[in-house]
């Protein structure tokens, strides 16, 4: 009887732990930033300028006041981000309790060259993250953050 009770308690703790784990991860600033980056890359792959532009921070929108100028800039200067062969998330650094996130993205460009991109993500007043800039490093191993 005691063994059965112990098993039930252990199982109960595991179930509660598994239920709480994903909820905590969903609120993680790095996870939220990664979702925004992935959605913007998907928008680039779909040639959806409006959606891609929606993830740009107010500062970037100030530099590129419409989606067409923004999209043209990305197409010209950030070809690996615009048309990645594939990409994976590397390291992330969360600053000031999530006010900013620096996220490394390992990208294979359309020409097969490998790149590291470091995204600067800023939390907005509504709690969402917007992309405030991307630094590209050609043919490198992880740059660290």
Describe what you observe in this structure.
The protein has 145 residues and is α+β, with helices and mostly antiparallel strands. The chain has one domain (26-138): Nuclear Transport Factor 2, Chain: A. Helix content is 48%, strand content 27%. The protein is built from six helices and four strands. A hairpin with a 5-residue loop joins β3 (114-123) and β4. The longest helix has 25 residues, at 2-26. The protein is globular, with a radius of gyration of 19 Å. The relative contact order is 0.14. Mean pLDDT is 86; it is low at 2-24.
- Gross geometry: globular
Strand order of the largest sheet: 1-2-3-4
- What kind of oligomer do you see? single chain
Tell me the total number of β-strands.
4
- Class by helix and strand content? alpha+beta
Which ranges are low-confidence, i.e. pLDDT below 50, for 5 or more consecutive residues? Answer: 2-24
Specify the CATH architecture: Roll
Q: How many helices does DSSP assign?
A: 6
Strand content: 25-35%
Secondary-structure element pattern, one letter each: HHHHHHEEEE
CATH topology (level 3) name: Nuclear Transport Factor 2, Chain: A
Please give the CATH class: Alpha Beta
Write down the Rg.
19 Å
Largest sheet: 4 strands, antiparallel
Number of domains: 1
Residues in helices, as a percent range: 40-55%
Euclidean distance between termini CA atoms:
53 Å
What is the residue-averaged pLDDT? 86
Pfam family, one: DUF4864
Keywords: Signal
InterPro entries: DUF4864
Signal peptide: 1-25
């Amino acid at each position: 009887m005691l063994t059965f009770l112990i098993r039930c308690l252990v199982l109960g703790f595991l179930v509660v732990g598994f239920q709480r784990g994903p909820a905590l991860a969903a609120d993680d600033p790095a996870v939220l930033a990664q979702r925004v980056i992935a959605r913007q890359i998907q928008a680039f792959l779909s040639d959806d300028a409006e959606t891609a532009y929606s993830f740009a921070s107010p500062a970037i929108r100030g530099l590129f006041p419409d989606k067409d100028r923004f999209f043209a800039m990305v197409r010209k200067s950030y070809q690996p981000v615009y048309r990645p062969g594939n990409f994976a998330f590397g390291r992330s650094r969360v600053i000031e309790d999530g006010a900013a996130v620096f996220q490394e993205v390992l990208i294979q460009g359309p020409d097969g060259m490998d790149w590291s991109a470091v995204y600067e993500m800023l939390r907005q007043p509504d709690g969402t993250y917007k992309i405030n800039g991307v630094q590209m490093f050609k043919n490198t191993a992880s740059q660290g953050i």
